[in-house]
Amino acid sequence: MPEEAKTDNITLKLWLETLESVIGVNGVKSLLNFAHLEQYITSPPPDNDNLEIPLEDLHGLYLALLELFGRKGARSLQLRIGKEFIRIGVTKRPTISKALKLSTRFVPGKKRISLALGKFAEEYDRRQPSPEYSPRMEVREEETCFLLIDKDNFESKGITSDTPMCATCVGRLQYLMEWITGHTFDIQEIECRAMGDKFDVFRVPKVPVERT
């Protein structure tokens, strides 16, 4: 029997807090009821890093979001959720965020992006490890961009689509890059398992969007 995928308590807790800030308390309750995860309404996960939450629960919450808001309608919502997730996360885990800021403070922009992506991949390997792939995430540098390759992202699991479905991750990366560099980047998901690709691949340009 394959090992059950788990995520840490704080990840689900952050998801619930993020959703509450975006769609409100009643919206979160509706999502949890729809996903048959009512236990988290009265007993939210504790604020710690223990890997105790079945990843299937987080996946079910995500699918409920798509179902209730529709795939097209959910995309802009997903981007907001992703950005808000990182905003709340850097506040909840100041030790990690301050260390990342300090480590990138005096390095050039491209190196700063590389270090931030590496830390992002490292954190997700630790907080949401894959039973199948180790490491779960990989960062590759190309001439004009970096590629973040996620080999086991729950956002694209069991979904069939003509368009990329991992906008929450795009939102997380957008906020992270802006937070760490002070600039906006046009981040895109260029491959997605929901579209039949092997992995989810996110393109992070080395040059930020020009301000007008």
The number of strands is 6
Helix content: 40-55%
Please tell me what the overall shape is. globular
Alpha carbon gap, first and last residue:
55 Å
- What is the assembly state of the chains in this entry? single chain
**Secondary-structure element order, as H and E?**
EHHEHHHHEEHEE
User: In CATH's first tier, which class of the domain at 103-205 applies?
Assistant: Alpha Beta
**How many individual helices?**
7
Mean pLDDT reading: 89
Strands of the biggest beta sheet: in what spatial order? 3-4-6-5
Q: What is the structural class?
A: alpha+beta
Largest sheet: 4 strands, antiparallel
| CATH topology tier name of the domain at 103-205 | Muramoyl-pentapeptide Carboxypeptidase, domain 2
Question: What integer value in Å does the Rg equal?
Answer: 17 Å
CATH superfamily of the domain at 103-205: Trafficking protein particle complex subunit 3
